[in-house]
Backbone:
């Protein structure tokens, strides 16, 4: 194939564009003074149960047969860690889990939350009045504890629920619901 001046200019333009696409990232890395891996901050690890304290913002607020609480997760370690998604939450007495674990409330999107040492994030915990379920299906009973699994964690944090809460003794009705983790504390004015 014979290179005409038109084809020669076109070939040179394509070669120049391709060369620029290869050179631009290299120039950007060289001008930063170091490689990308060296300049990127170290990724924080997922928060482990041993690094967190869980506490409840009280009193809860009631609406339409449910009570809503801010369930706070605080980083009590000396290192930064992350949480993403939904915690596992269930009600317990001192012997066993009572009823079904919490369902997921999808009203808020899942986001990666980075917790610095001393930082706090929260979820909204909805506790439905178990009187809304037939007693034969729910078998109402009293729970004294909440068991909380941080998102992605395999060990739980157990916390007392002051005054207890009404729970279903049987699996089936989902009377607890939680949102995905939300950055910051859920208690207004608390940092």
Residues:
């Amino acid at each position: 194939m014979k290179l005409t001046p038109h084809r020669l200019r076109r070939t040179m333009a394509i070669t120049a564009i391709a060369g620029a696409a290869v050179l631009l990232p290299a120039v950007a890395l060289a001008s930063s003074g170091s490689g990308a891996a060296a300049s990127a901050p170290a990724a924080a690890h997922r928060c482990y149960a041993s690094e967190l304290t869980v506490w409840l913002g009280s009193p809860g607020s009631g609406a339409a047969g449910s009570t809503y609480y801010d369930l706070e997760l605080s980083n009590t370690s000396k290192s930064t860690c992350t949480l993403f998604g939904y915690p596992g939450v269930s009600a317990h007495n001192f012997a066993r889990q009572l009823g079904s674990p919490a369902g997921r409330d999808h009203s808020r999107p899942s986001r990666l939350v980075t917790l610095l040492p001393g930082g706090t994030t929260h979820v909204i915990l909805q506790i439905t009045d178990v009187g809304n379920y037939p007693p034969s299906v729910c078998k109402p009973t009293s729970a004294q504890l909440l068991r909380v699994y941080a998102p992605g964690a395999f060990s739980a944090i157990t916390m007392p629920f002051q005054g207890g809460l009404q729970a279903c003794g049987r699996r089936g009705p989902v009377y607890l619901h939680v949102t995905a983790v939300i950055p910051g504390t859920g208690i207004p004015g608390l940092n």
